[in-house]
Amino acid sequence: MQAVGVVVEYNPFHNGHAYHVQQAKKLTKADVVIAVMSGQFLQRGEPALVDKWARTKMALASGVDIVIELPYVFSTAHAKQFAYGAISLLQAAGCQTFTFGSEDGRLEPFLDSFVLIQQNKELYDAFIKEFMTTGISYPKALQEAYTALQQQFPGTYIDLAKPNNILGFHYIEAAHLLKNKIQPATITRIGAGYHDAINEQSQIASATGIRQALFQEKVLQNINQFVPSPTYQLLEEWQQVHSTFASWHTFWPLLRFAILRHTPEQLSAFPDVSEGIEYALIKHAKNALSFNDFMDKIKSKRYTWTRLQRILTHIYTGITKQQLHAHTEPSYIRLLGMTENGQRYLSMYKKHMTLPLISRVAATQNDMLSLDIRATTMYQQGLSFHTMNDDYNTPPIRR
């Protein structure tokens, strides 16, 4: 059986995701689609709309055969580490190929951009250092350095200002670091862009647009046309139980408490906390009326919204830079769910996987896994005190 991998958050699973799964299977002629999916907290530093088990059910109902979890260490990391962890897991799970979405569906510009930076690394690093002295954020400095490099060596390259292209570039980079044992392929994105609001004349919307519609209009029916029916049903069930969806707005009282219970010295132990931002966090947490009010007060050229959210994620979960940086490689494959087809694949290839497959958390002792378990506990506390799924009592979803 041939397996193709996809790197996902499914926040939530929508029609564009369903299209990508179908095309991934078709393009690579794979028998099985394996999704490595972020857990309770995501790459942009925010809690997932619904938990990882609900999103696993969405995926399995709409074409994915196996869902494995991207550990917290990688799911909340910068794009390079996020991509490396994800592609490493797909390779360990036996995927021959992986696919990702891009604006024009051509792989060559990604490969050319990768070669451009690799062959001119010293010049690229010098440009980054130069732009950082102007006081701009690190991501912005990377973009400016990349633009300067293109001017020196004209060619057909990707636009690294677009979030999906940034991740695609780092997927290519990760495959290279892994000796190209897993091969990349790209699929043209259809419909909405990454940050686009929903368009009622279309059946395709970005996950960002769907979440905005849910939080602003608070009417689930308004997103019905943009998601497969199983997704809609699962969101409906979630809303009936919890009355709300997860967000920093929902978590704000506990996040505020988590900030204020620390001294500035203690806050400095968390990833990305530097240059005195710890003092600003405490100062503005005392007076902010809401999460958005808090973010508006602390955001700056140096500290982007995404960087700040990642910092807040680690403060909220209590995971320090020492704990996070102790792990640079995935050490297990955590199974979240599978279809019958996925189960057949696992039966055939489990012994050939290069990392242990974990289906029962209680039977496993692993420091990286303990961080995932803590993240789940804190995610649950942010939502409600109802009885919820947790890592010890929830077996892999079967469909």
Automatic annotation (TrEMBL):
Q: Which GO terms describe its molecular function?
A: ATP binding; ligase activity, forming carbon-nitrogen bonds; tRNA binding
GO aspect biological process, one term: tRNA modification
Subcellular localization is given as: Cytoplasm
Q: Which residues bind ATP?
A: 7-20, 101, 164, 189-190
Q: State a GO cellular component annotated for this protein.
A: cytoplasm
Q: Which InterPro entries match?
A: Rossmann-like_a/b/a_fold, tRNA(Met)_cyd_acetate_ligase
Q: Major location, coarse class?
A: cytoplasm
Please name the top-level EC class of this enzyme: ligase
E.C. number: 6.3.4.-
Q: Which HAMAP family match?
A: TmcAL (MF_01539)
Q: What is this protein called?
A: tRNA(Met) cytidine acetate ligase
Q: What organism does the UniProt record list as the source?
A: Metasolibacillus meyeri
Task: Name the lineage.
Answer: Bacteria, Bacillati, Bacillota, Bacilli, Bacillales
